[in-house]
Design brief:
By secondary structure, the chain is of the alpha+beta class. The chain has 10 helices and 12 strands. Helix 2 packs across helix 3.
Length: 373
């Protein structure tokens, strides 16, 4: 209900913003909210790939929520970060001041029913242009993309400065936390969490996208123990490449390299030294003397195939992990990673990211695995 949605009275679905995340490290971090509420996290902002000031706002918003919704359970910074990742890429390209104010302000497309961006429902102005600078039609506002009318109903003073604004990171985060908690949800329950996110935007594709980010933030930390033998050699080789940029068509058995032009998102890999997903797996398995084909779809034909129907539990450390548009058609496979154990994989996700550890649930179209060792 914060952002606009297709076929709804509240808006139209926006294009998904890509998330850029730094290598995963377990680093102690702590901050203190301006209102004197201590909040902490076992993961640093840098490890999460989130600007420090926005990360602090998520921590504060999660810590404050029971002040407003005493029955709320399971709210955590990862939930707020998952929403803001999709809505504004953590206010990317904007400055966040020490008090949380964001400049320039973040506003979504004009909701005039023109059809631009899928907006087919006109929503007349409700705030006189106060927050969206548009006195005729609504625009979603702030890093959490509230509609002005919704923010008036749920807005909270997250930084305790006596003012409430959707363009303040602390206020917006606290308000989003209150909205998601509803009358007292248990957001530690996955189904209740999914239902809460669905109220934020009536699209299950949106829910899946947000959940993939939450799952990845939840999974931040050190990798599972590295096995011995060839499996360990493959995993250790891949782990040493953390932080190397994604390059479309880049990398191979000999290591990172420039790639080719152009990815579906328009990246010219020829200007980036790094790996794409299958280039990374080629490099890692070459350390164990295994030569893999170049593409993820072709790599599905190597080793013993593990069907998607067997579930994630059938995977073992060192297995290739595949994602495809059809779980039973190897020709549709578009991504591959290396399973680490404990529900995690290492991979080169997409342009704009780096080699990193993700949960295997970070992508929605699991297509099984392959065992070569």
């Amino acid at each position: 209900m914060k952002r606009w949605q297709k076929l709804g009275c509240l808006g139209v679905l926006l294009m998904v913003a890509a998330c850029c995340t730094a290598p995963v490290l377990m680093v102690a971090a702590a901050t203190r909210a301006r209102g004197g509420v201590p909040v902490s996290s076992a993961v640093s902002a840098a490890a999460a790939g989130i600007p420090e000031r926005m990360f602090a706002a998520y921590l504060t918003g999660a810590a404050q929520v029971t002040t407003y919704v005493p029955g709320c359970r399971g709210m955590r910074w990862q939930v707020l970060a998952g929403i803001a990742r999709v809505e504004s890429d953590h206010a990317a390209g904007h400055t966040v001041a020490a008090n949380g104010d964001i400049s320039p302000i973040i506003t979504g497309p004009r909701l005039d029913g023109s059809g631009a961006g899928g907006n087919t429902t006109a929503i007349s102005d409700t705030d006189g242009g106060r927050w969206d600078n548009d006195p005729q039609f609504e625009r979603a506002v702030g890093p959490f993309q509230f509609l002005p009318e919704t923010f008036r109903a749920y807005g909270k003073d997250g930084n305790k400065d006596g003012q409430i604004s959707p363009h303040n990171a602390d206020d917006a985060a606290a308000s989003a936390a209150v909205y998601l908690c509803g009358d007292g949800r248990n957001l530690g329950d996955r189904e209740q969490l999914r239902a809460a996110i669905h109220t934020y935007n009536l699209s299950w594709a949106y829910v899946d996208d947000v959940m993939s980010g939450i799952d990845r933030y939840d999974a931040l930390g050190t990798a599972p123990a590295v096995p011995s033998g060839n499996v360990g050699a493959v995993i250790q080789a891949a782990l040493t490449q953390q932080g190397i940029p994604y390059s479309w068509g880049g990398g191979g058995p000999d290591g990172p390299s420039t790639g080719i032009c152009c990815s579906p998102r328009g990246q010219d890999g020829g200007s980036v030294v790094g790996y794409d997903c299958s280039g990374l797996t080629q490099y890692a398995f070459a350390r164990a003397g295994i030569v893999l084909p170049r593409t993820a779809a072709a790599q599905a034909g190597a080793g013993r195939r593990i069907p998607a129907s067997a579930g994630y539990g059938a995977l073992r450390p060192g297995d290739l992990v595949f994602y495809g548009y059809s779980p039973t058609a190897d020709s549709t496979i578009h991504h591959v990673g290396i399973y680490l154990g404990d529900g995690k994989m290492i991979n080169a996700p997409r342009p704009g990211t780096q080699v990193r550890i993700d949960p295997v649930t970070a992508m929605p179209d699991y297509a099984g695995g392959a065992r070569l060792l």
